[in-house]
Amino acid sequence: MGNALIYLTLLAYFGATALWLGFFLAQREKLCAGGVWLLGIGLGLHTLELIIRTWAAGYLPVATFGQALLVSAWALVAAFLFLYWRSPIKVLGALCAPLAALMVSGTLILPQGQVSVSPALQSLWLTVHISLALLGNAALCLAFLGGIFYLVQQRQLKAKRFGFFYRRLPSLEQLDALNYWCLTIGFPLLTGGIISGSLYAQRTLGKFWSWDPKEVLTLIAWLIYAVLLHERLMVGWRGRRAALLAICGFLVLVATFVGANLWFSGYHSFANFIKQP
Amino acid sequence: MNLVLLGLNHKTAPVALREKLAGFLGDLTAAYENLQARPELGECILFSTCNRVEALSVTEEPEGAVQQLRALFSGQGRIPPAELDEALYFHRDRDAVLHLFRVASSLDSLVVGEPQILGQIKEAFRQAAARQATGPILNRLLHKTFSVAKRVRRETGIGDHAVSIAYAAVTLGRKIFGSLAGKTAVLVGAGEMAELALEHLKSDGVGRIIIANRTLERGRQLAQRFGGEAVSLEELEDQLLHGDIIISSTGSPQHLLTREQVKGVMRRRKHKPLFFIDIAVPRDLDPAINDLDNVYLYNIDDLKEVVESNWQRRQQEAVKAERLVTEETLKFLDWLETLAVYPTIISLKEKADRICEAELDKTLKQLGPLTEEQRQVLEVLTHSITQKLLHDPILFLKGHHHPQRPVRDLDVVRRLFNLDLDSQPPSPEEE
To answer: Closest Cα of chain B to A155: distance in Å?
Structure first.
């Protein structure tokens, strides 16, 4: 099995998780710094693994749920490290690292095996469509995690009860800035993902939009984010409402990613990507 | 060698006595000259802050040293002995080290966990070192003290929780705004506590300060003091557009601002967060303001509650800190004991070297001419015999850290090897 790389990646992510949770509890800077390094190493291995897979298949392999999870985890870690480099919100790692570790674990648990993908789906267009969508998801996922922190911190400040989290979570302003920053990056990426997908659908299926469940849910999420961005820029919405909308939007995105494949069927379902024998 | 510490602090002495002492010990040059002139006192250092006056000395004669220090504290009879003895405490060796560590870690402070004390001790050390009053032991002890205090601060939450109302307001502000730099504070009315809070905010980087007062004249005075601008109270609602932190403490019998007013302002200021601190009794601000999004209202009772719970937390952390300090005290005493052992080890080695050389000389004379190589072989032989012989006694000396044992062991070793007679210059009839 050529899975050694992916196990090493997983090991690095779980190691980073342990360090980051340790940082969250003990508040030692060294643990956080170690967590960043381990995540960085994990991302390097992860990238290598994806390159090898892409090279072997000739296209970015995202035809099964497991494969898509692997790419999503990569996007999440990459987005987190980029954010960390720009404006470090350290505690975010305590959510990101375990999430990435779980997603990679999911890849390993879910049935993998060799699948052959119908030739219509082996195009560069599709790689672009999926990359944009998943990177957008990753950025909006960070907004979601930041939103959770915001609500927790805001509740404590409003109720004037300062518990375990008060000292460990960053200021409201920082969390709100995270929300805005992720939105301005995630929203254009998501939009790009939708547009590239619909152009490709026009080329292959002859129509831009087919009201497939995944498309409908994505559209709902896109609308939520569009409202949020508009209100932020025009009316100055921020804080709790922004956090709530970011959380709602991301839950819809998760539903599109997971639910649309498990509960509904449409041409976006993973089951349909695999060539029927 | 003993450590003695004599002093008084806010718990044992009234402020009048502390003032008097600080007065005549304030002239450090004179005080240190006085101390250094007394032969009983070896290394010494003086600490004098508004809450404590203490002297620490390394001495060979602890009883005499205590008398000398007491004389210094009485200021040649300026303070009646009865009054002084009632206030003075006295610690020796282990307790002196423990006391110093506790003081520097702010466990003995009026406000447990306050950060200034470490800086004051550092300054005291600088003063003492500049006058060559300290030596190897106090230098080591003080450096250890600094690192212990830092360790306590790092590993316990003793300094983490704000325990004054003004500072509690600042830490809350930081959790809302991140950094206070570039934010605008509006002071409504005036009052001691409000001004204190404003001072804290200013030292924390608040950019602009606006003072709204019923009487513009008083407002102008305050504005001048804080480097801000004065406006009239009628403009308050407009000032909310620019302000981020509003401290209110007027004597107004009814609310100055209602929920509806603030709601309107929030829309105009694009929902940028507002932090209200209502110190006034009766309250200036409608409590319902806190229900608005992005608005945080704390009144005096809320802040008191924050301070109260922080106090409890500090007390809990102080227990951890006490453990750390005790641990570090034991470590330092270990070092001190090995230090006591060194002179003996050195004289043991010197004696061995002297015997080696004398015996080698005699043997070489008897053997007649030898090659350089042969000479060296003989030298190595004698040295390794004595070294191996001394190895165990030295380990025995270094390895015993029980507080009472080393003194006795030292005595045994010194007598066994007859070291104390040897330290005198060898008499002529010695071979």
So the answer is: 11
Q: Of B152 and A61, which is predicted with more confidence?
A: B152
CB contact under 8 A, B272 and A236: yes
> Which residues form the domain of B172?
165-308
A179 contact residues in B (CB cutoff 8 A): none
Measured between beta carbons, which residues in chain B are less than 8 angstroms from residue A88?
A: none
Residue B109: both structure tokens together: 């402070």
CA distance B174 to chain A (A): 7
Q: What residues are paired with B297 via a beta bridge?
A: B276
CB pairs below 8 Å between A and B: how many?
50
> B155, B185, B206: which is the final residue of a domain?
B155
Instruction: Choose the catalytic residue: B15, B19, B39, B50.
Output: B50
| Confidence category of residue A121, pLDDT binned at 50, 70, 90 | low
Count CB neighbours of A102 within 10 A. Answer: 16
DSSP3 helix / strand / coil % (chain B, rounded to 5): 60, 15, 25
C-alpha dihedral (A143, A145, A151, A153), degrees to nearest 10: -110
Average pLDDT in chain B: 86
**Would you say residue A1 has pLDDT above 50?**
no
Same domain, B288 and B339: no
Tell me whether 0.85 is exceeded by the ipTM: no
The verdict on B121 and B222 lying in the same domain is no
- A78 contacts: CB under 8 Å, gap ≥ 6: A43, A135, A138
Which band of pLDDT confidence, cut at 50, 70 and 90, is reported for residue B29? confident
Window from A112-121, B119-128, B164-173, B262-271 with minimum mean pLDDT: A112-121
> Testing the interface with B: which of A27, A162, A179, A240 to mutate, by most B Cβ within 10 A?
A162
CB of B238 within 8 Å of a chain A CB? The answer is no
- Total domains in the fold of chain B: 3
What pLDDT was estimated at residue A190?
94
CATH for B294? 3.40.50.720
